[in-house]
Amino acid sequence: MHKILVFISIFIIFIFSCNKTEIDYSNNSSLNFSTDSLIFDTIFSGIGSVTKSFKIYNKSDKSLIISDIYIGKGSASKYMLNVDGQANTTFKNLQINSNDSIYVFVQVKINTTEDALLEQDSIIFITNNNLQDIKLLAWGQDVHFIDAEYIGDEIWQNDKPYLIYNSMLVEENKTLTIEAGSKLYFHRGSSMYIAGTLEIKGTFEEPVTLQADRLEQMYSDVPGQWDGIWLMNGSKHNRINFAEIKNAVIGIKVDTIADLSIPTLTISNTKIEHMSFAGIYAQGSTVFATNCLIDDCGYYTLALTIGGSYEFYHCTFANYWQNTIRNTPSVILNNYYTYNNSLITRNLDKAEFNNCIIYGNKDNEIYFDNSTSGIFNYKFTNCLLNIDENLITDITKFKNNILNEDPLFFDIENYNYKIDNQSPAKDKASITFIDLYPSYLNFDLNNESRVLDAAPDIGAYEASNL
Fold first, then answer.
1. Phi, psi at residue 297, to the nearest 5°?
2. Which pLDDT score is estimated for 16?
3. For residue 361, how many C-alpha atoms fall within 13 Å in the half-sphere facing its CB?
4. What are the Cα distances from residue 398, in Å, to 354, 391, 401?
5. Where are the CATH 2.60.40.10 domain residues in the chain?
6. Which of 235, 261, 360, 462 is the most interior residue, by most CB within 10 Å?
7. Is it true that domain 143-441 has CATH number 1.25.40?
Protein backbone atom coordinates (compact mmCIF):
# COMPACT_ATOMS: atom_id res chain seq x y z
CA MET A 1 0.00 0.00 0.00
CA HIS A 2 2.81 2.36 0.91
CA LYS A 3 4.48 1.78 -2.50
CA ILE A 4 1.21 2.57 -4.28
CA LEU A 5 0.86 5.89 -2.45
CA VAL A 6 4.44 6.84 -3.27
CA PHE A 7 3.86 5.97 -6.94
CA ILE A 8 0.66 8.09 -7.06
CA SER A 9 2.46 11.05 -5.44
CA ILE A 10 5.32 10.85 -7.94
CA PHE A 11 2.84 10.59 -10.80
CA ILE A 12 0.92 13.71 -9.63
CA ILE A 13 4.13 15.69 -9.26
CA PHE A 14 5.20 14.57 -12.73
CA ILE A 15 1.87 15.63 -14.27
CA PHE A 16 2.01 19.10 -12.64
CA SER A 17 5.65 19.51 -13.62
CA CYS A 18 4.79 18.76 -17.22
CA ASN A 19 1.99 21.30 -17.20
CA LYS A 20 4.18 23.92 -15.62
CA THR A 21 6.95 23.60 -18.19
CA GLU A 22 4.72 23.34 -21.24
CA ILE A 23 5.44 26.37 -23.43
CA ASP A 24 2.81 28.40 -25.26
CA TYR A 25 4.12 29.29 -28.74
CA SER A 26 0.85 30.60 -30.17
CA ASN A 27 0.87 34.03 -31.84
CA ASN A 28 -2.17 35.22 -29.88
CA SER A 29 -0.50 34.77 -26.49
CA SER A 30 0.17 37.95 -24.51
CA LEU A 31 1.32 39.26 -21.17
CA ASN A 32 -0.60 41.21 -18.56
CA PHE A 33 0.85 44.17 -16.66
CA SER A 34 0.02 45.85 -13.37
CA THR A 35 0.12 49.23 -15.17
CA ASP A 36 0.33 50.59 -18.69
CA SER A 37 2.72 53.46 -17.86
CA LEU A 38 5.21 54.77 -15.31
CA ILE A 39 5.29 58.51 -14.64
CA PHE A 40 8.12 60.06 -12.65
CA ASP A 41 7.62 63.40 -10.93
CA THR A 42 10.19 66.17 -11.36
CA ILE A 43 13.75 64.81 -11.48
CA PHE A 44 16.54 67.22 -10.59
CA SER A 45 19.40 67.50 -13.02
CA GLY A 46 22.09 64.91 -12.35
CA ILE A 47 20.17 63.21 -9.53
CA GLY A 48 18.57 59.84 -10.10
CA SER A 49 14.90 59.20 -9.48
CA VAL A 50 13.26 56.94 -6.96
CA THR A 51 12.83 53.35 -8.10
CA LYS A 52 9.39 52.54 -9.49
CA SER A 53 8.12 49.07 -10.26
CA PHE A 54 5.44 47.08 -12.00
CA LYS A 55 4.63 43.39 -12.44
CA ILE A 56 4.44 41.20 -15.53
CA TYR A 57 1.78 38.47 -15.27
CA ASN A 58 1.37 35.26 -17.21
CA LYS A 59 -2.28 34.39 -16.66
CA SER A 60 -2.37 31.47 -19.10
CA ASP A 61 -2.18 27.78 -18.21
CA LYS A 62 1.13 27.38 -20.06
CA SER A 63 4.52 28.97 -19.64
CA LEU A 64 5.50 31.89 -21.85
CA ILE A 65 8.90 32.91 -23.13
CA ILE A 66 9.48 36.64 -23.58
CA SER A 67 12.00 36.59 -26.40
CA ASP A 68 12.98 40.26 -25.97
CA ILE A 69 12.69 43.00 -23.34
CA TYR A 70 14.40 46.29 -24.16
CA ILE A 71 14.13 50.07 -23.77
CA GLY A 72 12.87 51.83 -26.86
CA LYS A 73 15.75 54.31 -27.16
CA GLY A 74 18.36 51.65 -26.47
CA SER A 75 21.74 52.83 -25.22
CA ALA A 76 20.65 56.49 -25.58
CA SER A 77 17.87 56.04 -23.04
CA LYS A 78 17.96 57.80 -19.67
CA TYR A 79 16.06 54.93 -18.08
CA MET A 80 17.57 51.90 -16.32
CA LEU A 81 15.94 48.49 -15.85
CA ASN A 82 16.12 45.65 -13.39
CA VAL A 83 14.12 42.59 -14.43
CA ASP A 84 13.72 39.66 -12.09
CA GLY A 85 16.77 40.76 -10.10
CA GLN A 86 19.06 41.40 -13.09
CA ALA A 87 20.16 44.91 -14.16
CA ASN A 88 20.58 45.50 -17.89
CA THR A 89 19.16 47.40 -20.85
CA THR A 90 18.12 44.32 -22.85
CA PHE A 91 16.91 40.87 -21.83
CA LYS A 92 16.30 37.76 -23.93
CA ASN A 93 14.36 34.53 -23.58
CA LEU A 94 12.91 35.18 -20.15
CA GLN A 95 10.47 32.44 -19.13
CA ILE A 96 7.39 33.07 -16.98
CA ASN A 97 5.63 29.99 -15.74
CA SER A 98 1.87 29.67 -15.95
CA ASN A 99 -0.03 31.86 -13.47
CA ASP A 100 3.22 33.39 -12.30
CA SER A 101 4.67 36.93 -12.32
CA ILE A 102 7.94 38.83 -12.18
CA TYR A 103 8.88 42.34 -11.08
CA VAL A 104 10.40 45.05 -13.26
CA PHE A 105 12.15 48.00 -11.54
CA VAL A 106 12.83 51.30 -13.33
CA GLN A 107 14.92 54.40 -12.58
CA VAL A 108 15.70 57.50 -14.62
CA LYS A 109 18.49 60.08 -14.53
CA ILE A 110 18.29 63.35 -16.49
CA ASN A 111 20.99 65.94 -17.12
CA THR A 112 19.12 69.06 -18.15
CA THR A 113 22.22 70.68 -19.68
CA GLU A 114 22.27 67.89 -22.28
CA ASP A 115 18.85 66.23 -22.27
CA ALA A 116 15.31 67.33 -22.89
CA LEU A 117 13.32 68.46 -19.86
CA LEU A 118 10.60 66.02 -20.87
CA GLU A 119 12.00 62.51 -21.23
CA GLN A 120 9.73 59.96 -22.93
CA ASP A 121 10.55 56.34 -23.63
CA SER A 122 9.03 52.87 -23.44
CA ILE A 123 9.84 49.30 -22.42
CA ILE A 124 9.20 46.85 -25.27
CA PHE A 125 8.13 43.23 -24.69
CA ILE A 126 8.03 40.67 -27.51
CA THR A 127 6.31 37.36 -26.86
CA ASN A 128 5.73 35.00 -29.80
CA ASN A 129 6.05 37.96 -32.21
CA ASN A 130 3.43 39.84 -30.18
CA LEU A 131 4.72 43.33 -29.28
CA GLN A 132 3.56 45.09 -26.09
CA ASP A 133 4.95 48.12 -24.28
CA ILE A 134 4.92 50.18 -21.08
CA LYS A 135 5.14 53.96 -21.54
CA LEU A 136 7.77 55.90 -19.56
CA LEU A 137 7.56 59.62 -18.79
CA ALA A 138 9.69 61.91 -16.61
CA TRP A 139 10.22 65.65 -16.20
CA GLY A 140 13.64 67.17 -15.60
CA GLN A 141 14.35 70.36 -13.67
CA ASP A 142 17.43 72.53 -14.01
CA VAL A 143 18.86 73.70 -10.67
CA HIS A 144 21.62 75.64 -8.97
CA PHE A 145 23.73 72.73 -7.78
CA ILE A 146 25.30 73.25 -4.33
CA ASP A 147 27.75 70.52 -3.33
CA ALA A 148 29.63 70.92 -0.02
CA GLU A 149 30.15 74.61 -0.73
CA TYR A 150 31.21 77.52 1.46
CA ILE A 151 28.88 80.48 0.96
CA GLY A 152 29.96 84.11 1.42
CA ASP A 153 27.80 87.20 0.98
CA GLU A 154 25.28 85.97 -1.56
CA ILE A 155 21.71 86.63 -2.69
CA TRP A 156 19.79 83.60 -3.92
CA GLN A 157 17.10 84.67 -6.34
CA ASN A 158 13.94 82.95 -7.48
CA ASP A 159 15.12 82.03 -10.99
CA LYS A 160 15.46 78.26 -10.60
CA PRO A 161 15.58 75.87 -7.62
CA TYR A 162 18.66 75.28 -5.47
CA LEU A 163 19.67 71.68 -4.88
CA ILE A 164 21.90 71.23 -1.83
CA TYR A 165 23.41 67.84 -2.54
CA ASN A 166 26.03 67.48 0.17
CA SER A 167 25.42 70.24 2.73
CA MET A 168 26.58 73.86 2.70
CA LEU A 169 28.03 76.41 5.11
CA VAL A 170 27.42 80.16 5.29
CA GLU A 171 30.75 81.47 6.54
CA GLU A 172 31.27 83.52 9.69
CA ASN A 173 30.37 87.22 9.28
CA LYS A 174 28.81 86.51 5.88
CA THR A 175 25.12 86.77 4.99
CA LEU A 176 23.05 84.54 2.74
CA THR A 177 19.86 86.30 1.62
CA ILE A 178 17.14 84.16 0.06
CA GLU A 179 14.55 86.04 -1.98
CA ALA A 180 10.79 85.44 -1.99
CA GLY A 181 9.54 82.40 -3.87
CA SER A 182 12.89 80.59 -3.85
CA LYS A 183 12.83 76.82 -3.51
CA LEU A 184 15.63 74.92 -1.78
CA TYR A 185 15.84 71.14 -2.02
CA PHE A 186 18.15 69.06 0.15
CA HIS A 187 19.51 65.62 -0.67
CA ARG A 188 19.40 62.95 2.02
CA GLY A 189 21.77 63.69 4.91
CA SER A 190 22.40 67.31 3.87
CA SER A 191 22.33 70.32 6.18
CA MET A 192 22.31 74.09 5.92
CA TYR A 193 25.02 75.22 8.36
CA ILE A 194 24.97 78.92 9.27
CA ALA A 195 28.10 80.30 10.95
CA GLY A 196 27.21 83.81 9.75
CA THR A 197 23.69 85.08 9.05
CA LEU A 198 20.68 83.69 7.22
CA GLU A 199 17.97 86.01 5.97
CA ILE A 200 14.90 84.46 4.35
CA LYS A 201 12.66 87.10 2.77
CA GLY A 202 9.52 85.22 1.80
CA THR A 203 6.09 86.76 1.40
CA PHE A 204 2.58 85.42 1.86
CA GLU A 205 2.17 85.14 -1.92
CA GLU A 206 5.68 83.72 -2.42
CA PRO A 207 6.98 81.81 0.59
CA VAL A 208 10.48 80.34 0.57
CA THR A 209 10.42 76.54 0.63
CA LEU A 210 13.11 74.33 2.19
CA GLN A 211 12.48 70.60 1.86
CA ALA A 212 13.87 67.25 0.73
CA ASP A 213 14.63 66.61 -2.94
CA ARG A 214 12.07 63.82 -3.35
CA LEU A 215 9.01 65.47 -4.86
CA GLU A 216 6.84 62.39 -5.31
CA GLN A 217 3.55 62.68 -3.44
CA MET A 218 4.37 59.67 -1.29
CA TYR A 219 7.31 61.63 0.23
CA SER A 220 5.37 64.85 0.94
CA ASP A 221 4.99 64.22 4.68
CA VAL A 222 7.85 61.78 5.34
CA PRO A 223 10.14 63.09 8.13
CA GLY A 224 13.93 62.79 8.34
CA GLN A 225 14.77 63.13 4.64
CA TRP A 226 17.47 65.77 5.30
CA ASP A 227 19.16 67.05 8.44
CA GLY A 228 17.84 70.63 8.72
CA ILE A 229 19.10 74.17 9.39
CA TRP A 230 21.76 74.65 12.05
CA LEU A 231 22.41 78.18 13.33
CA MET A 232 25.84 77.44 14.74
CA ASN A 233 27.68 78.86 17.72
CA GLY A 234 28.42 82.49 16.80
CA SER A 235 25.70 82.79 14.18
CA LYS A 236 23.71 85.97 14.69
CA HIS A 237 20.86 88.20 13.51
CA ASN A 238 19.12 85.44 11.57
CA ARG A 239 15.70 86.43 10.23
CA ILE A 240 13.14 84.13 8.63
CA ASN A 241 9.83 85.37 7.25
CA PHE A 242 7.23 83.36 5.35
CA ALA A 243 9.13 80.11 4.99
CA GLU A 244 7.99 76.49 4.79
CA ILE A 245 10.51 74.04 6.27
CA LYS A 246 9.58 70.39 5.81
CA ASN A 247 10.69 66.77 6.14
CA ALA A 248 13.96 67.14 8.05
CA VAL A 249 15.38 65.70 11.27
CA ILE A 250 15.43 69.09 13.04
CA GLY A 251 13.78 72.06 11.37
CA ILE A 252 16.00 74.69 12.97
CA LYS A 253 18.70 74.08 15.54
CA VAL A 254 19.58 77.36 17.29
CA ASP A 255 22.90 77.42 19.11
CA THR A 256 24.27 79.73 21.77
CA ILE A 257 23.79 83.49 22.16
CA ALA A 258 25.94 85.64 19.89
CA ASP A 259 24.41 89.08 20.53
CA LEU A 260 22.49 89.87 23.72
CA SER A 261 20.75 92.87 22.13
CA ILE A 262 19.28 91.07 19.08
CA PRO A 263 17.78 87.55 18.98
CA THR A 264 19.86 84.84 17.37
CA LEU A 265 16.69 83.97 15.45
CA THR A 266 13.70 86.13 14.60
CA ILE A 267 11.13 83.98 12.84
CA SER A 268 7.68 84.96 11.58
CA ASN A 269 4.87 83.53 9.45
CA THR A 270 6.64 80.21 9.08
CA LYS A 271 5.55 76.56 8.99
CA ILE A 272 7.90 73.86 10.29
CA GLU A 273 6.39 70.44 9.63
CA HIS A 274 7.19 66.70 9.55
CA MET A 275 10.40 66.53 11.60
CA SER A 276 11.68 63.19 12.86
CA PHE A 277 13.12 64.83 16.02
CA ALA A 278 12.22 68.48 16.63
CA GLY A 279 10.77 71.56 14.96
CA ILE A 280 12.91 74.15 16.78
CA TYR A 281 15.70 72.87 19.03
CA ALA A 282 17.35 75.78 20.86
CA GLN A 283 20.31 75.55 23.21
CA GLY A 284 21.00 78.52 25.46
CA SER A 285 19.95 80.90 22.70
CA THR A 286 17.51 83.73 21.96
CA VAL A 287 14.45 83.31 19.76
CA PHE A 288 11.65 85.74 18.93
CA ALA A 289 8.79 84.01 17.07
CA THR A 290 5.43 85.23 15.76
CA ASN A 291 2.68 83.60 13.68
CA CYS A 292 4.44 80.25 13.38
CA LEU A 293 3.01 76.74 13.01
CA ILE A 294 5.15 73.83 14.18
CA ASP A 295 3.61 70.39 13.86
CA ASP A 296 4.09 66.66 13.31
CA CYS A 297 7.40 66.02 15.09
CA GLY A 298 8.70 62.69 16.36
CA TYR A 299 9.83 64.10 19.71
CA TYR A 300 9.36 67.84 20.21
CA THR A 301 7.75 70.65 18.28
CA LEU A 302 9.80 72.94 20.53
CA ALA A 303 12.77 72.13 22.77
CA LEU A 304 14.20 75.08 24.72
CA THR A 305 17.26 73.62 26.42
CA ILE A 306 20.27 74.76 28.43
CA GLY A 307 18.61 78.05 29.32
CA GLY A 308 18.30 81.11 27.11
CA SER A 309 15.68 83.75 26.37
CA TYR A 310 12.59 83.09 24.27
CA GLU A 311 9.37 84.83 23.22
CA PHE A 312 6.53 83.25 21.26
CA TYR A 313 3.45 85.15 20.12
CA HIS A 314 0.43 83.71 18.29
CA CYS A 315 2.15 80.41 17.53
CA THR A 316 0.54 76.98 17.20
CA PHE A 317 2.42 73.91 18.40
CA ALA A 318 0.37 70.91 17.26
CA ASN A 319 1.76 67.42 17.65
CA TYR A 320 -0.36 64.48 16.56
CA TRP A 321 2.61 62.41 15.37
CA GLN A 322 1.22 59.56 13.26
CA ASN A 323 4.35 57.58 12.33
CA THR A 324 5.32 55.80 15.57
CA ILE A 325 4.55 56.00 19.27
CA ARG A 326 5.69 59.37 20.64
CA ASN A 327 6.77 59.19 24.29
CA THR A 328 7.77 62.82 24.77
CA PRO A 329 5.72 65.98 25.40
CA SER A 330 5.50 68.43 22.51
CA VAL A 331 7.22 71.32 24.34
CA ILE A 332 10.09 71.04 26.82
CA LEU A 333 11.83 73.76 28.88
CA ASN A 334 15.24 73.03 30.43
CA ASN A 335 17.98 75.00 32.20
CA TYR A 336 20.92 72.63 32.66
CA TYR A 337 23.11 69.94 31.12
CA THR A 338 25.50 67.32 32.47
CA TYR A 339 29.22 67.14 31.75
CA ASN A 340 31.55 64.50 33.20
CA ASN A 341 28.77 63.49 35.58
CA SER A 342 28.48 67.08 36.84
CA LEU A 343 25.33 69.17 36.50
CA ILE A 344 25.96 72.51 34.78
CA THR A 345 23.22 75.14 35.14
CA ARG A 346 22.46 77.71 32.44
CA ASN A 347 19.75 80.22 33.33
CA LEU A 348 16.43 80.18 31.54
CA ASP A 349 16.03 83.95 31.77
CA LYS A 350 12.75 84.01 29.88
CA ALA A 351 10.37 81.66 28.08
CA GLU A 352 7.17 83.55 27.34
CA PHE A 353 4.22 82.12 25.46
CA ASN A 354 1.53 84.64 24.61
CA ASN A 355 -1.68 83.89 22.67
CA CYS A 356 -0.30 80.45 21.71
CA ILE A 357 -1.83 77.00 21.26
CA ILE A 358 0.11 73.99 22.56
CA TYR A 359 -1.85 70.82 21.88
CA GLY A 360 -1.45 67.21 20.79
CA ASN A 361 -2.55 63.63 21.27
CA LYS A 362 -0.87 63.04 24.65
CA ASP A 363 -2.36 63.71 28.06
CA ASN A 364 0.36 66.25 28.74
CA GLU A 365 2.24 68.24 26.07
CA ILE A 366 4.44 70.50 28.24
CA TYR A 367 7.36 69.41 30.43
CA PHE A 368 9.43 71.47 32.85
CA ASP A 369 12.93 70.08 33.36
CA ASN A 370 14.61 72.49 35.76
CA SER A 371 17.55 72.63 38.08
CA THR A 372 16.63 74.55 41.21
CA SER A 373 20.15 75.96 41.39
CA GLY A 374 19.52 78.14 38.33
CA ILE A 375 16.95 80.65 37.10
CA PHE A 376 13.90 79.03 35.49
CA ASN A 377 11.56 81.77 34.30
CA TYR A 378 8.59 80.98 32.09
CA LYS A 379 5.08 82.33 31.61
CA PHE A 380 1.96 81.39 29.67
CA THR A 381 -0.55 84.15 28.99
CA ASN A 382 -3.84 83.82 27.11
CA CYS A 383 -2.84 80.43 25.74
CA LEU A 384 -4.76 77.22 25.05
CA LEU A 385 -2.73 74.46 26.69
CA ASN A 386 -2.77 70.67 26.75
CA ILE A 387 -1.15 70.21 30.17
CA ASP A 388 -1.28 68.05 33.28
CA GLU A 389 -2.78 70.55 35.74
CA ASN A 390 -0.67 69.06 38.54
CA LEU A 391 2.32 70.76 36.88
CA ILE A 392 0.82 74.19 37.56
CA THR A 393 2.46 74.76 40.93
CA ASP A 394 3.02 78.50 40.52
CA ILE A 395 -0.15 80.25 39.33
CA THR A 396 1.75 83.50 38.73
CA LYS A 397 3.28 81.81 35.69
CA PHE A 398 -0.15 81.07 34.19
CA LYS A 399 -2.56 83.90 33.32
CA ASN A 400 -5.92 83.74 31.49
CA ASN A 401 -5.19 80.35 29.92
CA ILE A 402 -7.63 77.73 28.63
CA LEU A 403 -6.66 74.27 29.82
CA ASN A 404 -7.27 70.95 28.07
CA GLU A 405 -10.09 72.04 25.77
CA ASP A 406 -9.94 70.71 22.21
CA PRO A 407 -8.93 73.61 19.93
CA LEU A 408 -11.08 72.14 17.11
CA PHE A 409 -8.46 72.07 14.39
CA PHE A 410 -9.97 71.62 10.95
CA ASP A 411 -8.23 68.44 9.77
CA ILE A 412 -5.52 66.92 11.93
CA GLU A 413 -5.00 63.94 9.64
CA ASN A 414 -4.11 66.26 6.75
CA TYR A 415 -2.17 68.74 8.92
CA ASN A 416 -4.69 71.59 8.65
CA TYR A 417 -4.40 73.42 11.97
CA LYS A 418 -6.70 76.33 11.27
CA ILE A 419 -9.37 76.57 13.95
CA ASP A 420 -13.12 76.39 13.62
CA ASN A 421 -15.43 79.28 14.56
CA GLN A 422 -16.61 77.14 17.48
CA SER A 423 -13.07 76.75 18.84
CA PRO A 424 -12.55 77.75 22.49
CA ALA A 425 -9.55 79.75 21.20
CA LYS A 426 -11.80 82.17 19.29
CA ASP A 427 -11.76 85.76 20.65
CA LYS A 428 -9.69 84.68 23.65
CA ALA A 429 -6.33 86.21 22.75
CA SER A 430 -5.06 89.42 24.31
CA ILE A 431 -4.93 92.52 22.09
CA THR A 432 -2.08 93.81 24.29
CA PHE A 433 0.55 91.78 22.48
CA ILE A 434 -0.72 92.81 19.06
CA ASP A 435 -0.53 96.45 20.15
CA LEU A 436 3.01 95.74 21.35
CA TYR A 437 4.15 94.26 18.01
CA PRO A 438 1.60 95.37 15.37
CA SER A 439 3.96 94.95 12.42
CA TYR A 440 4.34 91.28 13.32
CA LEU A 441 0.87 90.42 14.60
CA ASN A 442 -1.83 92.52 12.89
CA PHE A 443 -2.26 89.64 10.41
CA ASP A 444 -2.27 85.91 11.04
CA LEU A 445 -0.35 83.15 9.26
CA ASN A 446 -3.06 83.08 6.59
CA ASN A 447 -2.70 86.86 6.09
CA GLU A 448 -6.10 87.50 7.71
CA SER A 449 -6.56 90.55 9.94
CA ARG A 450 -6.63 89.87 13.67
CA VAL A 451 -8.26 93.17 14.60
CA LEU A 452 -11.53 93.28 12.61
CA ASP A 453 -13.81 91.29 14.94
CA ALA A 454 -14.55 91.30 18.67
CA ALA A 455 -11.09 90.10 19.71
CA PRO A 456 -8.11 88.26 18.24
CA ASP A 457 -8.00 84.46 18.39
CA ILE A 458 -5.39 82.31 20.10
CA GLY A 459 -2.84 80.58 17.86
CA ALA A 460 -1.30 81.16 14.46
CA TYR A 461 -4.67 81.37 12.66
CA GLU A 462 -7.80 83.40 13.07
CA ALA A 463 -10.90 81.19 13.20
CA SER A 464 -12.93 80.61 10.04
CA ASN A 465 -15.67 78.42 8.57
CA LEU A 466 -13.36 76.88 5.94
1. -125, 140
2. 47
3. 16
4. 10, 11, 7
5. 22-140
6. 462
7. no
Report the alpha-carbon distance of residue 224 to residue 212 in Å, rounded.
9
Per the CB < 8 A criterion, the answer to whether 133 and 126 are in contact is: no
CA distance 125 to 231: 54
CB of 157 within 8 A of CB of 60? no
Residues 6+ apart with CB under 8 A from 362: 319, 326, 329, 330, 386
Distance of alpha carbon 60 from alpha carbon 95, whole angstroms: 13
* pLDDT tier at 416, thresholds 50, 70, 90: very high
∠ Cα 47 253 147 (to 5°): 25
Task: Round to whole Å and give the CA distance between 227 and 187.
Answer: 9
Predicted local confidence at residue 466, as pLDDT: 61
**Is pLDDT above 50 for 292?**
yes
Parts of the chain belonging to CATH 2.160.20: 143-441
Supply the CATH classification number for the domain 22-140. 2.60.40.10
Which one, of 99, 29, 25, 94, lies nearest residue 58 by Cα? 99
Supply the DSSP symbol for 63.
B
Candidates 167, 133, 140; CA nearest to 48 is: 140
Structure pTM? 0.84
| Overall average pLDDT of the 418-439 stretch | 96
The one-letter amino acid at 263: P
What are 445's strand-pairing partners? none
Cβ partners under 8 Å of residue 89, min gap 6: 70, 71, 74, 75, 77, 80, 81
% of the chain exceeding 90 in pLDDT: 79
> Any idea what DSSP says for residue 76?
G
Neighbours of 163 (CB within 10 A): 23
